[in-house]
Amino acid sequence: MEHEVKHDQDDLRFYIVIDEEEAELTYSYTEEDTMDFDHTFVPESARGQGVAHNLARHGLDFARENNCKAIASCPVVEAFVKRNPEYNDIMLWP
């Protein structure tokens, strides 16, 4: 089931509302053109349904569309990129 991902640029997060709870992917800007994806949270009732995958894809697509590089401080985003190497061109790895 695909959920609508919303982007709150003021709070620096992508989120999905699921049954009155929120799943989110937060980020910060380390430089004007570098986004650090630092935390993913999915409510227990929604885990295993591809929600984190959906958030990571939207976040990384936003970075690409805005000519930003990305850092995967969050292990969920790191795992997503390792499974989806089409994002390697925008990643900054330590």
How does this model look, in words?
- It contains 2 helices and 5 strands, in the order ββββαβα.
- The chain has a 5-stranded mixed β-sheet with strand order 1-2-3-4-5.
- It is globular and about 35 Å long.
- The mean pLDDT is 96.
- The chain is an alpha+beta fold and 94 residues long.
- The protein has a single domain (18-90), classed as Gcn5-related N-acetyltransferase (GNAT) (Aminopeptidase).
Largest sheet: 5 strands, mixed
Portion in strands: 25-35%
Number of domains: 1
The ordered H/E elements are: EEEEHEH
Inertia-based shape: globular
> Level of helix content?
25-40%
Mean pLDDT: 96
Strand order of the largest sheet: 1-2-3-4-5
Structural class: alpha+beta
Instruction: Kindly report the CATH topology.
Output: Aminopeptidase
The CATH superfamily name is Gcn5-related N-acetyltransferase (GNAT)
CATH architecture classification name:
3-Layer(aba) Sandwich
* Unreliable runs: none
What would you report as the Rg, rounded to the nearest angstrom?
12 Å
Q: In CATH's first tier, which class applies?
A: Alpha Beta
Enzyme class: transferase
EC number: 2.3.1.-
Keywords: Acyltransferase, Transferase
Domain N-acetyltransferase: 6-92
